[in-house]
UniProtKB/TrEMBL annotation:
Membrane topology reported for the UniProt record: Multi-pass membrane protein
Domain Cyclic nucleotide-binding residues, every copy: 145-264
Localisation: Membrane
ANK-type repeats, residues: 324-356, 357-389, 421-453
Organism, as annotated: Cucumis melo
Domain of life according to the entry: Eukaryota
Protein name from the UniProt record: Potassium channel
Function: Potassium channel.
Annotated transmembrane regions: 12-32, 44-66
Domain notes: The segment S4 is probably the voltage-sensor and is characterized by a series of positively charged amino acids. The pore-forming region H5 is enclosed by the transmembrane segments S5 and S6 in the Shaker-type (1P/6TM) and contains the GYGD signature motif which seems to be involved in potassium selectivity.
Length: 564
């Protein structure tokens, strides 16, 4: 602009703005050479755009540099702080090296994205469980400690384990520390070190798939060794509390785990292990009579795997429960546990063993309507006649179950036999007022004029209680056979009549002729029902203890008394 005084105000203003923008953007005057106002205006906006773009690029580059160095700066600060701490407290050189090695490994895993636990913890539980199963299930399944346990328990254990990395020469477990965790080695190796005469001595090495720290956790004793990594290692950590919370739900798995540990102790020829094994055997001998684990308990829980191990180790298949006289075969047959029944028969269980009430296993299977077990027992020599057949028939008649009566007949039982008080199944059917059961019993040859010890006959009971349909059935029976004389006892104190809830008795019978409810219940001397089994399906009651010290140790070890 040669003579700016002669130019218009607008042109002078645009030119000034252009000069200012070229100056602030560090573009020298003349690098862009507009020749008119339109070009000058365009250059102004263009330079504004260039200015913003440069600011954006420089800002991003600065942010990338700062972000890339922030972790390094934080790592340096952490290293400096740990060094100051170690120097201030005069820590040993070996411990300082472990601290620095751990911090360096943590920095590397964070930098390379290997700190998988933090990533996994941010995911939903189902996804976390699936990842853990994919990564570690096969490894845990091959571990000696869990050999033979259920798939469900391994699934739960894997989902509770935490994967951790450890650098070389780092202590994982210290000798004599409290047993809070045990570890499974995924990769790498560790040394087992003990202190003897003030000197460290390596007594063993553990590699991939081995377990360390489990002896202290399961026996609740201080850790026996210092466990130190010999190279970069990944380990699965399982907390003791979480472990017991899972194992307590299955007494069978708990027994198998303890048995695996005891077998390992017997295999290791080491004075320390022999001392622990001796303590375990002493605890077992003291606890043997308190809470033994027998084939009866295994059958009661339906754990055929545990039952098999117990029987292989010499457990008595015919052991009788002191409360009711039942054997494991009684329980397995009653609960429909066919695999348990087959195992017990294979190991010599008596299929004709009677309990205190005269029940035999085949009758228990009939009551539970387990036809396959009935056939299995019969094929192995079971005879229902070995039990109290008269009681079985009376029970079936009382329950109005023709199917049970047919099963008794199919197994070779005589349903017309009387009980010790003279009552028969026909007596019970008449008292229940079930004409169909009465007809079935008559077809099987039941005697309508057979008296019990008090002189009551089925026909007399039918007349006394006013069961017209049953009386008609008896009349047909009487027309075929020679009539027999019968009488109704006159003693009002008779203890054997049972009336239905809605009586059909004729009105002429006086109140004094009716037995009282107490007398009524005493008729047929019905055997008491078996009480429900309250056996705690846990690690033999460790939840009922304080979970501490020698008490827990004894309770855990006594699980194996019958299988060791």
């Amino acid at each position: 602009m040669e003579d700016f005084h002669t130019e218009s105000l607008a042109r002078r203003y645009v030119t000034s703005i252009y000069w200012s923008i070229t100056t602030i953007t560090t573009i020298g005057y003349g690098d862009l050479h507009p020749v008119n106002e339109q070009e000058v205006t365009f250059c102004v906006f263009y330079l504004f755009f260039i200015l913003g773009l440069q600011a954006y690029l420089i800002g991003n580059m600065t942010n990338l540099i700062v972000h890339g160095t922030s972790r390094t700066r934080k790592f340096r600060d952490t290293i400096q702080a740990s060094s100051n701490f170690a120097n201030r407290n005069q820590l040993p050189v070996r411990l300082q090296e472990q601290m620095l090695a751990h911090l360096c490994l943590k920095f590397r895993t964070d930098l390379e994205g290997l700190q998988q636990q933090e990533t996994v913890d941010s995911l939903p539980k189902a996804i976390r469980s699936s990842i853990a199963l994919h990564l570690f299930y096969s490894l845990v399944d091959r571990t000696y400690l869990f050999n033979g346990v259920s798939t469900d328990l391994i699934f739960q254990l894997v989902t509770e384990m935490k994967a951790e990395y450890f650098p070389p020469k780092e202590d994982i477990i210290l000798q004599n520390e409290a047993p809070t965790d045990f570890y499974i080695i995924v990769t790498g190796a560790v040394d087992l070190i003990t202190q003897r005469n003030g000197m460290e001595e390596i007594v063993g090495e553990a590699k991939k798939g081995d377990v360390v720290g489990e002896i202290g956790v399961l026996s609740y004793k201080p850790q026996l060794f210092t466990v130190r990594t010999s190279r970069l290692s990944q380990l699965l950590r399982l907390n003791r509390t979480s472990f017991f919370n899972l194992v307590q739900a299955s007494v069978g798995d708990g027994a198998i785990i303890m048995n695996n540990l005891l077998k390992r102790l017997k295999e290791i020829k080491d004075p320390i292990m022999e001392e622990i094994l001796q303590e375990a055997e002493e605890a077992l001998s003291r606890a043997k009579t308190e809470m033994p684990l027998t084939s009866y308990h295994a059958a009661d829980s339906g754990d055929d795997l545990l039952l098999h191990q117990l029987l292989k180790r010499g457990s008595n298949p015919n052991e009788v429960d002191a409360k009711d006289g039942k054997t494991a075969l009684h329980i397995a047959a009653a609960k429909g546990k066919e695999h348990c029944v087959a195992l017990l028969l294979e190991y010599g269980a008596n299929p004709n063993q009677r309990d205190f009430e005269g029940n035999v296993p085949v009758w228990q299977a009939i009551q539970g309507k387990h036809e396959s077990i009935v056939k299995l027992l019969m094929d192995n020599g079971a005879k229902i006649s070995s039990g109290n057949v008269a009681q079985f028939a009376c029970t079936a008649a009382e329950q109005n179950s023709i199917d049970m009566l047919k099963s008794i007949i199919h197994c070779g039982g005589d349903i017309t036999l009387p009980r010790s008080n003279g009552t028969t199944a026909l007596h019970m059917a008449v008292c229940e007022g079930n004409s169909e059961t009465v007809k079935f019993l008559l077809d099987q040859g039941a005697d309508i004029d057979k008296p019990d010890v008090n002189g009551w006959t089925p026909r007399g009971l039918a007349d006394h209680q006013g069961h017209e349909k049953i009386k008609e059935l008896f009349s047909v029976k009487q027309a075929v056979h020679t009539p027999a004389a019968f009488h109704i006892p006159q003693d009002p104190e008779s203890k054997y009549i049972k009336f239905p809830s809605e009586s059909n008795m004729p009105p002429r019978i006086s109140e004094n002729s009716c037995p009282s409810p107490v007398q009524e219940s005493m008729f047929y001397d019905r055997p008491p029902r078996r009480r429900s089994n309250n056996y705690q399906n846990s690690l033999v009651g460790f939840m009922t203890t304080n979970n501490t010290g020698e008490v827990l140790f004894c309770l855990l070890k006594k699980l194996i008394v019958s299988i060791s």
